[in-house]
């Protein structure tokens, strides 16, 4: 059964009892085809009574008329519909109740009644002010009992909630890991897997002939190549200082200078830069030799500002390019980055090729000994080095969680 919403107005106890008051007003009603004027006996918010003037009225019948009130400085009419509830022929008293009063009509009647009870004079401004505002409150909405959702709908909602939660958690963890890496982890400028090696360069401008065995292994003192240069090219820088005659210079044009390049150690060829019978300029690298007893380690370059964090014996984490897991090592040596060795002709062993560049003498190099031995095939592979021991009590769980989240995201 449907319930109608009822407009509720806040009113006083006197108003709720529908007091009938005698207000100077008249009722204009059409009776038998003629409009007649009747005097109001009393009126309330629910109905009114008027003098019938000898006419007969049917109880229960609805009539339409107009109420006229005297309001300073003019009058006011109020069209109303009413139903006859009782009729006293002896006293000609007709009692009626209002029918279908709207909010504006109800508000106007209540204002007139309240003003009459309080002894106030109603003006046109008061009427306009009252009619311009909303004097009623909405009926309270009743809570409708919700139907229980089916199990399938609840399961899907729970699943979607869980998926969104996991996605949000993964995004937060990723953002936190990136922020953690930027603010709390100091990375090396550049790093690689290194080992002491020998760079053999061309001593003169000439032709290089390769003597390295196919297996790439040479003994100490074993020839690794020969070179042949024109004798005239050797003395052409300042031939006048030798006081050579034109005939001697002519003879030098057909002479050649031959030389042999020997291995400085029991080595393995790490890299070749020149082909057999190729013309090579002076100081151009020919081959890089790696000693047989060389143990690969990590060599990292840091800004000089990181010097205080580069303590010998400190554990650091690093990751070799191409690997998905981290390795650990200990700082064994810290030194300043020396002057670039591009013009070094002494052929001494070096491990910083690839990390040196002009204008970086303010940087420092850290030699890191790995906990697990690195294969020789990793030499010259780039490395990402992080200062600090991720296995510590504080950073360890964070680093492990970040690593697991990264692995989970990589599988998606």
UniProtKB/TrEMBL annotation:
Q: Which residues cross the membrane?
A: 157-176
KW Methyltransferase (keyword) present: no
- Return the Pfam families for the record: Beta-barrel_ALG44 (PF25965), BSH_ALG44 (PF25964), PilZ (PF07238)
| Annotated ranges, domain PilZ | 16-114
Q: What InterPro entries does the entry give? A: Beta-barrel_ALG44, BSH_ALG44, PilZ_domain
Which residues belong to any copy of the ALG44 beta-barrel domain? 296-388
An example molecular function term from Gene Ontology annotations: cyclic-di-GMP binding
Ranges where the ALG44 barrel-sandwich hybrid domain occurs: 199-293
Q: Which Gene3D superfamilies match?
A: predicted glycosyltransferase like domains
Keywords, comma-separated and alphabetical: Membrane, Transmembrane, Transmembrane helix
Protein's name in the database: PilZ domain-containing protein
């Amino acid at each position: 059964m449907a319930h109608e919403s009822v407009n509720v107005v806040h009113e006083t106890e006197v108003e709720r009892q529908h007091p009938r008051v005698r207000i100077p007003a008249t009722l204009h009603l059409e009776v038998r085809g003629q409009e007649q004027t009747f005097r109001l006996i009393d009126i309330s918010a629910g109905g009114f009574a008027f003098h019938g003037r000898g006419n007969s009225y049917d109880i229960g019948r609805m009539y339409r008329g107009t109420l006229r009130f005297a309001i300073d400085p003019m009058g006011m009419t109020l069209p109303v519909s009413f139903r006859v509830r009782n009729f006293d022929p002896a006293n000609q008293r007709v009692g009626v109740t209002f029918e279908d009063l709207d909010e504006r009509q109800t508000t106007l009647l209540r204002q007139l009644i309240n003003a009459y009870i309080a002894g106030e004079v109603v003006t046109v401004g008061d009427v306009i002010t009252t009619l311009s505002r909303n004097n009623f409150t909405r009926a309270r909405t009743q809570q409708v009992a919700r139907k229980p959702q089916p199990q399938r709908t609840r399961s899907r909602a729970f699943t979607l909630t869980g998926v969104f939660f996991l996605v949000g958690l993964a995004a937060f963890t990723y953002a936190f890991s990136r922020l953690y890496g930027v603010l709390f982890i100091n990375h090396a400028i550049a790093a690689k897997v290194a080992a002491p090696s020998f760079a053999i360069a061309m001593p003169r401008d000439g032709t290089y002939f390769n003597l390295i065995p196919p297996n790439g292994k040479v003994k100490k003192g074993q020839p690794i190549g020969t070179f042949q240069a024109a004798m005239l090219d050797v003395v052409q820088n300042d031939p006048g200082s030798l006081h050579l005659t034109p005939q001697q210079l002519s003879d030098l044009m057909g002479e050649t200078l031959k030389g042999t390049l020997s291995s400085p150690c029991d080595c393995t060829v790490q890299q070749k830069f020149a082909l057999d019978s190729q013309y090579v300029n002076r100081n151009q690298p020919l081959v890089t030799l790696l000693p047989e007893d060389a143990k690969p380690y990590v060599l990292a370059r840091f800004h000089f500002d990181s010097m205080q964090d580069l303590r010998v014996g400190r554990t650091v984490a690093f990751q070799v390019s191409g690997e998905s897991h981290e390795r650990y090592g200990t700082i064994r040596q810290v030194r300043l980055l020396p002057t670039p060795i591009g013009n070094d002709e002494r052929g001494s062993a070096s491990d910083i090729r690839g990390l040196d560049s002009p204008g970086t003498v303010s940087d420092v190099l850290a030699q890191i000994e790995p906990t697990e031995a690195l294969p020789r095939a990793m030499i010259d592979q780039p490395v990402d080095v992080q200062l600090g021991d991720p296995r510590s009590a504080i950073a360890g769980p964070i680093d492990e969680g970040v690593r697991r989240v990264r692995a989970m995201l990589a599988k998606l």
